[in-house]
Design goal:
- Helices cover about 50% and strands about 15% of the residues.
- The chain is an alpha+beta fold.
- It has a six-stranded antiparallel β-sheet, with helices on both faces. A three-stranded antiparallel β-sheet has the order 7-8-9.
- Helix 2 runs antiparallel to helix 3 and helix 3 runs antiparallel to helix 6.
- The longest helix is centred in the middle third of the chain and has 62 residues.
């Protein structure tokens, strides 16, 4: 087959040159179709190949870059209900955007908002940008570029986002066929993205339900263990043959199966003498247990606070400090 050099040097006859040009054009068109097919096939596979949306957007960028120059590329999602925009993926030579959601009005007059409002693809050359600016349909935002190419991401007839490529160089210009390519590609992106989002939502729902069921199982197990423990304590109280010191130790053992009870004591309060007597105690840090748990006159310690209030208490460090500052304990 003739090559470009043969055609350009005129070594072929005019009919042969025309035939060669047509053949080269067909080969070029075939290559474009093959590249498009490869890119679209990859996009359709992304929803199953990618673990999450972050990796999905990276792969989308790579697929688009295989079809056209896409050094500057972003995907922004639009939430119509809450009127917000979120740049879920953004790679740019000059501009950057912080993560998170922005009010839609913050980008009023931008080409992104223009595509969302019109629901139509836009190839914004410098001439088109000037015309839209004169008509006050857009205002200049961000760094000035050469060509801006944006297409709406549509789902169920509604715009849910915009996919954009941009050029800052005169050497990279976009044409109508690039706009057609990006528009065609956008729907495959949406289809793959929706499948991935559905899968993530399903996984979250399954995880939430699993956590709920596991909690129910744990709660049920705790309830059964608590009932069993209360029954065992009840049995101990009815067994008059057990010495009292042994009884306290066995109660400690039962409670230790319910919660962490390595530091544990039982105190008896004598209302007449207003004194406390620690009839059973176990403490990991105490160096002198008998001294630390000797009988004492009732004061304003945490034990006395429970006795005076007659209520069950669960105190963390913050609550204990608050009681101390209020002068209720020392």
């Amino acid at each position: 087959m003739a090559n470009l050099d043969e055609i350009s040097t005129g070594s072929l006859s005019e009919p042969e040159q025309e035939l060669a040009k047509e053949s080269l054009a067909l080969l070029d068109k075939y290559k474009q179709l093959q590249d498009r097919y490869t890119a679209l096939f990859k996009l359709n596979q992304l929803s199953s190949d990618c673990a999450d949306l972050n990796s999905f957007f990276v792969q989308v960028h790579q697929a688009i870059a295989s079809l056209m120059m896409a050094k500057n590329f972003y995907i922004v999602m639009y939430d119509q209900t809450f009127s917000t925009l979120e740049f879920v993926y953004h790679v740019d030579e000059k501009d950057s955007w912080p993560s998170g959601q922005f009010a839609y009005e913050d980008f009023k007059g931008s080409m992104t908002n223009y595509v969302i409002e019109t629901g139509q693809p836009l190839l914004a050359t410098p001439e088109v940008i000037d015309e839209l600016t004169k008509k006050k349909l857009i205002v200049q935002t961000g760094s000035s570029g050469t060509d801006w190419l944006g297409v709406p991401l549509m789902h169920n007839g509604f715009v849910i986002g915009v996919m954009t490529v941009q050029s800052y160089s005169e050497t990279t210009r976009y044409q109508e066929h690039d706009l057609d390519m990006l528009t065609f590609t956008a729907q495959h992106v949406v289809s793959a993205m929706v499948r991935l989002q559905d899968r993530e939502r399903l996984q979250k729902a399954v995880d939430a339900r699993t956590r709920e069921l596991m909690k129910q199982i744990r709660d049920r197990e705790k309830s059964e263990l608590l009932q069993e423990s209360l029954f065992r304590i009840s049995e101990l109280t009815n067994d008059t043959s057990i010495e009292i010191s042994k009884f306290y130790s066995m109660v400690h053992n039962i409670i230790g199966q319910l919660i962490n009870a390595e530091n544990f004591y039982i105190a008896r309060y004598n209302r007449q003498s207003d004194t406390l007597k620690f009839v059973y105690y176990s403490d990991q840090k105490s160096e002198n247990l008998k001294e630390d748990f000797r009988p004492r006159k009732a004061s304003n310690h945490f034990t006395e606070l429970v006795i005076k209030s007659g209520e069950t208490m669960l105190l963390d460090q913050e609550k204990m400090m608050a009681l101390y500052k209020q002068g209720k304990t020392k």
